[in-house]
């Protein structure tokens, strides 16, 4: 086995490259692991964040970009920043599972489950961000550390010179930022969103399955100048029913979280999709909205369709849900309902006043990563009252099958002389719902209209219950 350096005392996060496949080790290791089947190359990184970023780039980026990235590695390998191993007898690529055998002979297998497990754990930002990133990211979030430069064909990311000064007390994290800026600058967008979440206080919205189903059928007929959201970045947790549905529909495990990030000044918009299970290392799916001030958001989404496989199509549905929810929170107002886990929050608040410095530090870290729950400040009807489409008089036709009529947002003139405009939500309609019998989960619509409170649409607000080009 050929290697430039042994892994010394540093723990490394490994990826195994073999042909077009790239697998990531679920755990870190001080020693070079044995991989079955034997890959052509093994690359070790200092952090799991960079490991997963490299895996995504190799699997998703255009071939030319992957080639440039691999060509940039020898210098970093020579300096010891990255470990590199080329096994003597690589085996042919396979579509089967990858087995990682660590020091001592313990074996770790990485499989993608056909069904998602129902998580009963109250989420915190530690579900999304490594513990050691919390403090430095919060410091960055209070500064304009990443500049998004608008260009004719997209955006360019530039680190602000203040980054080195802000991260003076966090040299290891500063190294991560500088390495990503040099080799994978688009990965900085995820850190940018995380930093703004921490700076403004972590906010989470937990829509119901019925709300998600309705918002998936709402078109985004707005241009990027008209888009609004209540915070620069926040977290949307998809209900487990929607996760399972989207996993079945696209045969790809559905992410648990979506993070819309919006820069009001430049109209830049991105949605990050995250599985939120860093311990299982199933990877992070990141989707960016292409940006054109001359096109509607809907036309941009339509251009996305058909690109990059089923995982990308699934992510577009998630993106649609998250962005429509953001618009509703802005249009109808929102309320903060306090800590998501009130019991844990009160406990850590007490420990933050402890005489023990260690307990104080741990409590403050957990408080900084605790979510505040956010919801619509009023009950908004998300689906129009069920309508019936009757056959044409004199025809022998029959009623149309139950189906969706899509909703959208539009501008209407209001006020004296109708000189002002206001953004209005036009609700989607579920047509012929009264003929929609059987198990809704077995249909392509999957909305439980029998559990929804559908009242007259004339009411103002009504409840409903139960690679990347930038």
Instruction: Return the average pLDDT rounded to an integer.
Output: 79
Structural class: alpha+beta
In the predicted model, the low-confidence regions spanning at least 5 consecutive residues are 1-7, 110-118, 437-470
**Largest sheet at a glance?**
7 strands, mixed
Dominant shape = globular
What is the end-to-end distance?
40 Å
Number of helices: 13
Number of strands: 23
Widest sheet: strand ordering: 16-15-14-13-11-18-17
- Beta percentage is 15-25%
Radius of gyration using CA atoms only? 24 Å
Work out the helicity level.
Answer: 25-40%
In short:
The chain is an alpha+beta fold and 470 residues long.
Structure, explained:
The chain is an alpha+beta fold. Among the domains are: 2-107, no CATH class; 121-200, no CATH class; 384-451, no CATH class. Helices cover 29% and strands 22% of the residues. The chain contains 13 helices and 23 strands. It has helices at 48-60, 63-71, 73-79, 134-141, 163-166, 171-183, 188-200, 209-215, 240-250, 297-304, 310-332, 342-351, 357-368, and strands at 2-3, 13-18, 21-24, 34-36, 41-45, 83-86, 98-101, 107-110, 146-151, 154-159, 203-205, 218-219, 235-237, 257-263, 268-274, 286-288, 334-339, 372-376, 384-387, 403-405, 407-414, 420-426, 429-431. Helix 8 (209-215) crosses helix 11 (310-332) and helix 9 (240-250) runs antiparallel to helix 11 (310-332). The chain is globular and about 75 Å long. It holds the Pfam family AcrVA2-like. InterPro entries: AcrVA2-like (IPR058915).
């Amino acid at each position: 086995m050929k290697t430039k350096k042994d892994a010394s005392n540093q723990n490394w996060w490994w990826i195994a490259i073999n042909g077009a496949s790239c697998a990531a080790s679920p755990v870190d290791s001080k020693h070079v692991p044995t991989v079955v089947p034997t890959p052509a190359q093994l690359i070790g990184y200092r952090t799991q964040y960079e490991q997963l970023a490299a895996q995504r780039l190799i699997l998703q980026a255009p071939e030319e970009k992957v080639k440039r990235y691999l060509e940039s590695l020898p210098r970093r390998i020579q300096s010891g920043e990255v470990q590199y191993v080329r096994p003597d007898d690589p085996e042919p690529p396979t579509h089967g599972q990858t087995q990682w055998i660590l020091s001592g002979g313990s074996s770790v297998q990485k499989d993608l489950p056909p069904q998602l497990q129902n998580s009963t754990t109250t989420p915190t930002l530690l579900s999304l961000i490594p513990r050691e990133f919390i403090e430095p990211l919060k410091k960055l979030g209070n500064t304009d550390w990443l500049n998004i430069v608008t260009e004719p064909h997209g955006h360019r990311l530039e680190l602000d010179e203040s980054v080195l000064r802000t991260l003076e007390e966090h040299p290891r994290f500063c190294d991560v930022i500088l390495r990503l800026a040099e080799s994978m600058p688009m990965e900085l967008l995820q850190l940018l969103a995380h930093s703004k979440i921490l700076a403004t206080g972590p906010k989470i919205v937990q829509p119901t399955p019925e709300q998600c189903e309705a918002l998936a059928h709402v078109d985004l007929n707005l241009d990027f100048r008209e888009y609004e959201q209540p915070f620069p970045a926040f977290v949307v947790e998809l209900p487990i029913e929607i996760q399972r549905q989207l996993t079945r529909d696209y045969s790809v495990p559905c992410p648990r979280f979506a993070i819309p990030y919006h820069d009001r000044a430049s109209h830049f918009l991105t949605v990050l999709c995250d599985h939120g299970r860093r311990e299982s290392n199933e990877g992070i799916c990141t989707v960016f909205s292409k940006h054109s001030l001359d096109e509607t958001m809907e036309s941009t989404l339509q251009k996305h369709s058909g690109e990059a496989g089923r995982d990308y199509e699934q992510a577009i549905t998630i993106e649609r849900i998250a962005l429509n929810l953001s618009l509703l929170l802005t249009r109808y107002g929102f309320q903060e309902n306090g800590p998501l886990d009130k019991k844990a929050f009160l406990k850590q608040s007490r420990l933050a006043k402890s005489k023990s410095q260690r307990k104080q530090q741990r409590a403050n870290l957990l408080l900084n990563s605790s979510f505040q729950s956010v919801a619509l400040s009023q009950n908004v009807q998300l689906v129009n009252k069920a309508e019936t489409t009757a056959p044409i008089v004199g025809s022998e036709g029959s009623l149309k099958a139950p189906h969706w009529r899509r909703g959208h947002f539009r501008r209407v003139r209001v006020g004296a002389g109708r000189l002002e405009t206001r953004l209005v939500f036009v609700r989607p309609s579920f047509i012929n719902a009264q003929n929609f019998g059987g198990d809704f989960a077995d249909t392509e619509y999957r909305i439980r209209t029998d559990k929804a409170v559908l009242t007259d649409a004339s009411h103002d607000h009504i409840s409903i219950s139960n690679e990347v080009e930038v």
